[in-house]
G domain-containing protein (Lachnellula suecica), 395 residues
Amino acid sequence: MSSALGKTFGPEDLFVSVMGLTGSGKSSFISQLTKESIAIGHNLQSCTKVPAIYTIKCFGKVVHLIDTPGFDDSNRPDFEVLTELTTWLNIAYNLEVRLSGVIYLHRITDPKMGGAASLNLRTFYKLIGEDKMNSVILATTHWDTAKDDSLALQKLYDREKDLKQNYWAPLLQGGAISRRHDNTVKSAMEMLWEILAKNDTFVLKVQTEMNVGNLRLGETSAAKEINHELIAQQEKFRKEMLDIQKEQEKAFKKKDETYQKDLEREKKWYQKQLDESVNAQKRLQQSAQEQMETKLGEIKTLSDALQEIKSKQKSENEKSTTLREDIEALQKSNEEYKAALDQALAKMPPASTPPAASVTTPNGFSVSGNEDVVLMTMGVAAVASVAPYVFCTVM
Ligand SMILES: Nc1nc2c(ncn2[C@@H]2O[C@H](COP(=O)(O)OP(=O)(O)OP(=O)(O)O)[C@@H](O)[C@H]2O)c(=O)[nH]1
Ligand SMILES: [Mg+2]
């Protein structure tokens, strides 16, 4: 199957997606499996901007690994990343691409589960679907950084325990498994194998919501998670601004002009944050939808083209089945004629006997002989007239 995703897929191909916060090690993980050079981020800027497919052949299967952009991108809001991801997932859905599993990466060296990490995890949970967790591996990265330091390692074990008991608990209870990635090909390969060994595929919640339930992006569970976060953020900024306002009143009474100016600066900063957050929320509802609608138009065209190819294939298959049946029937009757001919030949009078009958076949053969022989020869001629089809079908 050729695809709008930039690659050609076979019907037996498998797809595994790698997700996680920006900088968690998604591209590094994939490049360990592919041995391909993939852009890897070495600063705070996020590196992978759009989903990209890397293909390997392993365990006798063609496996496409999907590298995804991470949330908490330094340059663009989460909803833009969500739009990017859902667009890809919707195109994939319409091209009948189904994921076998998802590997979700988390940097174990992060001292705490920050707001972005926690939001990303919640969005991921809603994107995949609470009931699809058995297709998920939660993998912690960067273990190698503490491998020769037992104290540092102990800290990482404590963090892992905290993750499992708190943040990851609902995902693990839903069937996800947790693994450690020690930055080696072996641990990457083991995780991939665990997914492929299940020999299963699934549809993500966001794919069902948008393609079956016809929800708009802003109405999906994943987008709602980001929306809640933006609302909470705005409440926090508004509260900070109210507190500053009270301080400003006090400073005014005390005639403390320097403090008043500092507070004004601080208030402006919060106002800017608030505006950005409100703007992001609006764009989550509107622009993301516009982007999505344009993409959905493209998806529909592709999907229609795919259906057309399929229906052509179906009708060709039906034609070929009918033809094969006709040929089989002719071959059968030919065998019967042949048997009759053998019998007729056995009964034939001596060579001097004049012909008893003569006939011209539909395809121009003139045949003569006694009645039985003529009948038989017509049968052979009929098979000869379909012979080209016989070869086409077999080829
Ligand atoms: N020591 C160590 N470094 C890692 C590991 N995984 C990734 N890194 C490093 O972490 C940085 C970010 O890795 P990437 O693979 O680019 O992370 P990403 O998740 O693809 O990031 P985005 O594309 O920005 O979303 C790079 O400097 C990697 O070399 C790991 O397991 N151990
Ligand atoms: Mg990357």
